[in-house]
Specification:
The structure holds 2 protein chains of 2 kinds. By secondary structure, chain A is mainly alpha-helical. Chain A contains 5 helices and 2 strands; from the N terminus they run ααββααα. Chain A has one domain. Chain B is an alpha/beta fold. Helices cover about 30% and strands about 30% of the residues of chain B. Chain B is built from 14 helices and 24 strands. The chains are: A mainly alpha, B alpha/beta.
C-alpha cells in the first residue's frame, strides 16, 4: 500500500497501530508494547490529538488496545501519524538500540510513514 | 550502553562506571545496613546533576522520619526537594487497594512526572502483600517493564533473607543486585557491600568494606581489585638523599620503583626514609609518610634533630594510623586519595612490620602490599617501605612476610660486631633491572643524619654479623 502525504486512506490510524502493536508484541511481548506505545502517545498527543482517544489497558493478565473508529476520520491524522511512528522509533532506539527499529522499518507501511526512511 | 553514575566514587569504580541506564536494581540487606542511605545518596547526587528523582515510600520507614533523618546527611539539599527530588507515598494506595492500586499510582506519577530515577522503599512491603508467587512474578515483571520503558532507572529497596533472594521474582527480573551487610571481626563490626549481579557490565566482585558518616556511604574497594588510576611512567632516578647511598645505587632509586629498607631495630631505617623525603622536598617534590609507629610529632622531631626539613605539613604530609585500627582497604583508598590530592611523588611507609600486626592474615597482608606497590607505581610515585629484621646481628633471613619479591629494590642495613664495637653496615641486595654496587659499606649516624663510609675491606663474613679479619 502506498501512502501519500495529505491523502487519507482509512482506516490509517487503526492500521498503523495494528502493525506497530503486532510487530512489537511478537518480539518484546504485550506489556512492553503497551507501555512503549502509551509513552509514544503521551509524547505525540499534543500534535496529534486523535491519539489521545486510543485506549491501552490491562485486561486481566494481558494488555489490549482499542482505536476508536472516529480516529480515522480526522483529516489531519495522515500527516501526523508519521510523527507518531517516528516517536515510537526514537523511543525504541533509545531504549533498545537499533535492532527493533530496523525490524519495524522492514514493514513497508512503517517505512513509508517514517522520516528516517527519507 | 550508557551508565548512571552513583557519584559515590568508589562505588562507581566497583560498578565499572555505574549502573546501566534504565536498569532495575535491587538493594538488599539486613535492617540498618545502609540500603536507604545508599539509595538516597545516589538519588540526591543525581538530582544535583539534573536528574529528576522520585523516592516512593511504602509501609516500612514512615516518610516523615525518613525526611527528618535524610536531612542529617551532607548530600541532602533542600533546594532540590520538589524540584529534582520528590518524596511520594505509595503506602496509602497499598492500604486501600493492595499492590495493583500501588502500581496504578506509581504509573500515574511516572507518566505525569517522567522521572529519570525512581526508588521504592521498601519494595519488600509490596512483595509481602502479593498473594502468591505467580502474581508476584507478574507484578514485578510489569513494574520492571513500565519503569524501564519510561526510561527510568529503578531502585527496589528491601530486607530479604538469603532464601528470599534465591526465590523472589524481583531478583530474577533485576538487572543489578547490591547486597549490604556486616561482618564481625572479633569485637568490631565491619560494614560490607557486594555486587551480586550486574547485567551487561563487568564489575569488581567480592566484598568491599564501607562506612556511613555524615557525608553518607564511603566505600573502600576490596584490596587486590584494580584501583582506577591511569598509569604513567617517567623513568630516571631519584636521589635517596644520602650521597654515599646514591653512589651504591648508581645514581639513586629508579623513579616509580618500590624499595624495602630492611634492618634491625634502631639501625636507622626511619632516618634513611626521612632523608629520602627531605631530599624530595628540596627538589620540589611533595611526599606523604604513612606511619604506623611514630606519631607525626615524633617523626618531625627526629627529622629536626638531624637537620632534615620535611616541611610544615603541606609539602610532606604525615598520616598516622594505629595498627590496631587498620582496615587494609580503607587505608589503601585513603592513601590513593591523599597522594592524588597532594600530587605526591614520594611515599614512605614506616613500617610494614607494624602494619602487618593490623592485618588478620598473611595472605591479606601480601595482597595489601602488592596492591599498594602497584597503585603507587601507576601514580608515578617512588615508594619506600621500612621493614624490621627479626635478628639484631647478621642476616640469615631475608625480608619477612614474603614480600621481598614485590619490591623492586632491597636496601639491607645490618649491625656488625667488630672488635667489640657495634658498627652499622649497608648494602644493596637487589635492584630490579638495573646495576648497583655490591659493596658492603659501613655507615654512621651523625648529627647530620646518615653518613656512608668505606667498605669493610679487611673483614669477611660481615653479613653474618660477626666478621673475621680477611686473609691477607
Amino acid at each position: 500500500m502506498e501512502i501519500k502525504a495529505g491523502h487519507t486512506e482509512p482506516p490509517l490510524v487503526r492500521l498503523v497501530f495494528s502493525v506497530l502493536w503486532n510487530e512489537l508484541k511478537e518480539t518484546i511481548g504485550s506489556a512492553p508494547t503497551a507501555t512503549l506505545l502509551r509513552r509514544a502517545i503521551i509524547i505525540s498527543q499534543d500534535t496529534c490529538p486523535v491519539l489521545a482517544r486510543i485506549i491501552i489497558e490491562k485486561n486481566g493478565r494481558e494488555y489490549r488496545y482499542e482505536v476508536p473508529a472516529e480516529a480515522d476520520l480526522d483529516p489531519q491524522t495522515c500527516d501526523q501519524i508519521g510523527d507518531f511512528v517516528d516517536t515510537v522509533l526514537a523511543l525504541l532506539a533509545r531504549l533498545t538500540g537499533n535492532v527493533l527499529v530496523r525490524q519495524l522499518l522492514s514493514n513497508p507501511l512503517i517505512r513509508q510513514l517514517s522520516e528516517k526512511e527519507q | 550502553m550508557q551508565k548512571l553514575k552513583t557519584y559515590i566514587e568508589s562505588l562507581d569504580e566497583i560498578l565499572h562506571g555505574g549502573i546501566p541506564e534504565f536498569a532495575v536494581t535491587v538493594i538488599t540487606g539486613e535492617p540498618g545496613s545502609g540500603k536507604t542511605v545508599l539509595t538516597l545518596q545516589t538519588m540526591f547526587n543525581n538530582a544535583r546533576h539534573g536528574a529528576k528523582c522520585i523516592y516512593f515510600t511504602t509501609l516500612s520507614e514512615p516518610a516523615p522520619k525518613l525526611i527528618r533523618y535524610t536531612q542529617m546527611f551532607e548530600f541532602f539539599d533542600e533546594d532540590l526537594i520538589n524540584n529534582n527530588f520528590k518524596f511520594a507515598d505509595l503506602g496509602s494506595a497499598l492500604r486501600e487497594g493492595g499492590p495493583d492500586q500501588a502500581m496504578e499510582r506509581l504509573i500515574e506519577v511516572v507518566e505525569a512526572e517522567q522521572p529519570d530515577i525512581v526508588a521504592i522503599d521498601s519494595f519488600k512491603a509490596i512483595h509481602d502483600l502479593v498473594p502468591d508467587t505467580e502474581s508476584a512474578r507478574l507484578f514485578v515483571y510489569d513494574l520492571a517493564v513500565q519503569l524501564s520503558l519510561w526510561s527510568v532507572t529503578t531502585f527496589l529497596v528491601g530486607e530479604y533473607t538469603p532464601e528470599e533472594i534465591s526465590h523472589s521474582p524481583e531478583f530474577a527480573v533485576a538487572d543489578a543486585i547490591i547486597n549490604m551487610g556486616t561482618e564481625t571481626s572479633e569485637l568490631a563490626s565491619l560494614r560490607e557491600i557486594q555486587i551480586k549481579k550486574l547485567r551487561g557490565s563487568s564489575f569488581n566482585s567480592g566484598k568491599h568494606f564501607f562506612e556511613i558518616g555524615s557525608a553518607g556511604v564511603r566505600i573502600y574497594p576490596r584490596v587486590g581489585t584494580a584501583l582506577n588510576i591511569e598509569s604513567s611512567t617517567s623513568g630516571g632516578r631519584v636521589s635517596s638523599g644520602v650521597p654515599g647511598l646514591d653512589e651504591l645505587l648508581h645514581g639513586g632509586l629508579p623513579s616509580q620503583s618500590a624499595t624495602i629498607i630492611e634492618g634491625g631495630t634502631g639501625i636507622g631505617k626511619t632516618l634513611l626514609g626521612l632523608h629520602f623525603m627531605a631530599r624530595g622536598l628540596s627538589e620540589g617534590e611533595k611526599g606523604i609518610i604513612f606511619t604506623f609507629e611514630e606519631t607525626p610529632d615524633q617523626l618531625k622531631a627526629i627529622a629536626a634533630h638531624f637537620g632534615l626539613s620535611i616541611g610544615s605539613g603541606t609539602d610532606v604530609e604525615i598520616q598516622y594510623t594505629a595498627p590496631v585500627e587498620l582496615l587494609g582497604a580503607k587505608w589503601l583508598t585513603l592513601a590513593r586519595d591523599r597522594v592524588q590530592e597532594l600530587g605526591a611523588k614520594r611515599v614512605m611507609l614506616d613500617s610494614v612490620s607494624t602494619m602487618a600486626m593490623g592485618v588478620t592474615t598473611e595472605r591479606r597482608f601480601k595482597d595489601l602490599i602488592y596492591t599498594a606497590v602497584k597503585m603507587f607505581r601507576s601514580m608515578g610515585v617512588t615508594f619506600i617501605m621500612t621493614m624490621e629484621a627479626p635478628e639484631l646481628l647478621g642476616s640469615s633471613m631475608l625480608t619477612g612476610h614474603g614480600i621481598s619479591s614485590m619490591s623492586d629494590n632491597i636496601i639491607m642495613m645490618r649491625y656488625v660486631e667488630v672488635e667489640s664495637q657495634l658498627k652499622r653496615a649497608i648494602s644493596i641486595l637487589k635492584m630490579r633491572g638495573t646495576s648497583h654496587e655490591n659493596d658492603l659499606r659501613e655507615f654512621k649516624i651523625t648529627n647530620e643524619g646518615i653518613l656512608i663510609g668505606e667498605p669493610f675491606k679487611h673483614f669477611q663474613g660481615v653479613l653474618s654479623g660477626l666478621p673475621t679479619p680477611a686473609a691477607q
